[in-house]
Design a protein that fits this description.
Distance between the termini: 32 Å
Number of strands: 2
Strand order of the largest sheet: 1-2
Radius of gyration: 20 Å
Shape: elongated
């Protein structure tokens, strides 16, 4: 994570691009706002659902080569999207919400749960893509894929309903740029 922060600190935002956390009292590293990121993540979610359906369909057959190919296709897409979320989406939200205690608590809870789902899915992917298939793997494969499908559904529903709506341009967050609640109950900025 330190390496990533170092890279992000040395990478300036393109001219005219908004960043979160770059103002007074902000985070140590800017995270660029990408206007189309949520739309891209929604497309990735639809793709992941389609790849999972193809994998579940392959599990209904007996061709292990097709099952492994579908599992690999799903893994590639899932991992690519997880990387984008971990490098762009979650850090931006963390910076954007850092001065709103209630929003940050909610974000942390949802992100922790989402991360648990990601890690469980990844464990299944590693187990079946990283080891030779034996009788035990063959017997557990279909139930494990069904479990991964369930986890994926919960993960995507949770992100789409709770986190995606929080991804806004920096000027739309109340506490960015040094604005803090006024003592009389009003809002500054």
């Amino acid at each position: 994570m330190r390496l990533l922060r170092g890279i992000l600190e040395r990478t300036p935002a393109p001219e005219g691009q908004h960043t979160a956390g770059s103002g007074e009292g902000g985070s140590l590293f800017p995270v660029r706002y990408r206007q189309r990121l949520v739309a891209e993540l929604k497309l990735d979610a639809a793709t992941a659902r389609g790849l999972m359906r193809a994998l579940l369909d392959a599990c209904r057959g007996s061709d292990e080569s097709t099952q492994i190919a579908c599992l690999q296709d799903f893994a590639d897409g899932f991992r690519r999207t997880a990387l984008i979320k971990s490098v762009q989406f979650y850090p931006y939200l963390r910076c954007a919400l850092e001065h709103d205690t209630m929003a940050m608590m909610h974000f942390n809870e949802v992100q922790t749960e989402a991360q648990r789902h990601v890690l469980r899915i990844e464990a299944i992917l590693v187990e079946y893509l990283g080891a030779p298939w034996d009788a035990t793997c063959r017997r557990r494969f279909v139930p494990d894929v069904a479990r991964a499908a369930s986890l994926l559904g919960r993960l995507l529903r949770q992100e789409e309903s709770t986190l995606f709506p929080l991804y806004l341009p920096p000027d739309q967050y109340r506490y960015l740029g040094g604005s803090v609640p006024r003592e009389n109950g009003g809002r500054a900025g």
